[in-house]
DNA sequence: GTCTATATGGCGATAGAC
DNA sequence: GTCTATCGCCATATAGAC
């Protein structure tokens, strides 16, 4: 009787309708509607990413967005729809950086670029990173099918690129998957654990020097180690 | 009016009373009481670490522990007390591994030991790791004072050890704090993101070979990099 | 589109019998 | 110590006026 968690019962994220997409008349009005929807989505992400789905109330989001509770329900028919739409939007951003992984043949450039892109994402979209983390920790009720499908395929594909580099002697032997996990964890850490990072260093990635130092430090360790 | 999040208003974790600690007669009865309390704590950790504070209901915990809701309230006067007690217990475990960091003079041994201990913790106490992660993501309302106090001091102390290694030429120049973050993130990743790890690799740290492979992979990258 | 009620249900916590 | 019953609050969502 799993009671808590989001009861999505097999809802496919990609199947989500944008709602109202069929209405056509009045392009101007339509744009205003979409803009406000977008604004609510961004506001809601900020709240959800801190308190989680259950810890967030519609009223909080409404207050942050300076609208009334009922008005929010005019734009999103339920709390779940709001949450799902956000998660769907995040996925693409989260996945984007790995796309350019086999474009370049030089592993050093490719991997250092990837590290930088992921770290930029942690800097520019820390809330998205945290929401994603919350989702995974809770067992990925919504994203599980995605993890087992698309993501798995992509990683297998990228792993082959890494293995080619190894067989060509361009990098040392290393488990490709473990290497990818290392990159993910080290870069996402600065978004997900930013409170801890800030408590200890007094800085976060919005600090330019700290960003560069962190980027180089991660790149250095992954390429040269410390020995 | 920050409404969500846990409304602890300055409650100091360390000030928590164990409740009933003053009652003396009947050592046998007392032990039974404590045992049951302990059992509830362990059960509750499992639930809290998946669904978070707000996503977890007392009823869920009670069901998991095979007791009634009311009976649970006999052992813990509120949901918050239950949660706080768990968090308090976790902290010590989480911190323990770093203690033996300056005992040994050889950096390779010390750091490889530390990585292994942290990874063992991710294997043996994944729920604790996830609850800790949830807490930090939400802004560490309860642990903030700890992060800024004890933890900061410990890290500064350990950083000096690392800097001594560097000045002695035993390891390459590296920002000590960044090195520690790298170790934390890479090892904790296998607990916090275990669902994702399992989706991609089909394994988790309870698999002996996978544990050893992961441990060596992390140790290798941190010491030798991939170049 | 936006507002003021209000319905509805769930959950933390308590009362009081045994 | 454990149970049954229940209180009271709060959060999601809807109805219906403007």
TrEMBL record, chains A, B:
Keyword DNA-binding included in the entry's annotation: yes
Gene3D superfamilies on file: Homeodomain-like, Tetracycline Repressor, domain 2
Naturally occurring in which organism (per UniProt): Vibrio diazotrophicus
Example of a GO MF term: DNA binding
InterPro entries from the UniProt entry: DNA-bd_HTH_TetR-type_CS, Homeodomain-like_sf, HTH-type_TetR-like_transc_reg, HTH_TetR, Tet_transcr_reg_TetR-rel_C_sf, Tscrpt_reg_YcdC_C
DNA-binding positions: 57-76
GO BP terms, alphabetized: negative regulation of DNA-templated transcription
Domain HTH tetR-type as annotated: residue spans: 34-94
Keyword Acyltransferase listed: no
Descriptive protein name: TetR family transcriptional regulator
């Amino acid at each position: 009787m799993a009671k808590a968690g989001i009861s999505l019962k097999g809802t496919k994220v990609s199947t989500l309708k944008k709602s109202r997409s069929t209405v056509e008349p009045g392009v101007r009005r339509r744009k205003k509607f979409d803009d406000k929807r977008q604004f609510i989505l961004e506001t809601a992400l900020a709240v959800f990413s801190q308190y989680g789905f259950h810890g967030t109330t519609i009223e909080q989001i409404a207050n942050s967005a300076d609208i009334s509770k009922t008005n929010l329900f005019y734009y999103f028919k339920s709390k779940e729809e709001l949450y799902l739409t956000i998660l769907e939007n995040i996925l693409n951003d989260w996945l984007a950086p790995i796309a350019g992984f086999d474009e370049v043949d030089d592993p050093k450039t490719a991997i250092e670029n990837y590290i930088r892109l992921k770290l930029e994402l942690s800097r520019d979209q820390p809330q998205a990173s945290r929401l994603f983390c919350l989702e995974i920790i809770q067992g990925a009720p919504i994203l599980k099918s995605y993890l087992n499908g698309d993501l798995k395929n992509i990683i297998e594909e990228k792993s082959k690129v890494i293995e080619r580099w190894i067989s060509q002697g361009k990098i040392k032997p290393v488990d490709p998957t473990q290497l990818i996990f290392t990159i993910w964890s080290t870069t996402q850490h600065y978004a997900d654990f930013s409170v801890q990072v800030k408590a200890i260093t007094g800085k976060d990635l919005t600090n330019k020097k700290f960003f560069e130092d962190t980027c180089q430090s991660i790149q250095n360790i992954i390429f040269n180690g410390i020995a």
